[in-house]
Amino acid sequence: MKSLVVSLHDVSPLTQTLCENILAQLQELGIQQTSLLVIPNHHRRAPITENASFRSWLVRKVEAGHEPVLHGYFHQRQRQKTDSLLSRLTTETYTAGEGEFFDLSTDEASSRLRRGLEDLAFLPRNVVGFVAPAWLLGAAAEMAVREIGFWYTTRLSRFQSFRSAGDVRSRSLVWSTRAEWRAWTSLAWNRCLAIATARTRLIRIGIHPSDLGHAAVWRQVKQLVAAAMPGRDCVSYEKFLEIFRR
Ligand SMILES: [Zn+2]
Fold first, then answer.
1. 2-245 architecture in CATH?
2. More confident position, 234 or 81
């Protein structure tokens, strides 16, 4: 059986209302299970440890079958004086300074990951997946992710299992709405990518809360989710890993 994984990125108290709306619309399409990429303290101004209503909302989503995934800690990278042109291009032009795990040391990554897991310990189940903000996970930080015992991570172009199952090449559909030209480029690109990935074993659709605010982007997100569903298990990444290891 082929799979479709829909993931919702940047779930935090700052985006909770948009996320709720997105999940409701996905449910209308028949998507009952997604991977929710949760940020413990979004941009250092939305600590979930201090937000009881967000925590109980998230518990309800997890109890309904959605998978909680750790998604960075602050989702923000401190700019460094020594940044090379390539690092600046990668972390700022491409991701607007969100690449938090791009060049953390193993120790620093490890301490943020542990803190993130502690912050999510109120959930009724364990968190087994980690996805770096903007999928930028450096080699040193990846060591920390493995050492702590996460089961998997994802990159822009692959699903990466740490449980002896190997990797699955699969490029995620993802939209950018930061500027109008980016949104229109995303629409053209994702139309092509949807055709290219139509027969692959895993289709990944990555949604950001801001996608909902761009009418043409949101229309295409829903269209491509609906088109990918027939004949596929619509599951979380964790569930996909289980199917894939069988
Ligand atoms: Zn993100």
1. Alpha-Beta Barrel (3.20)
2. 234
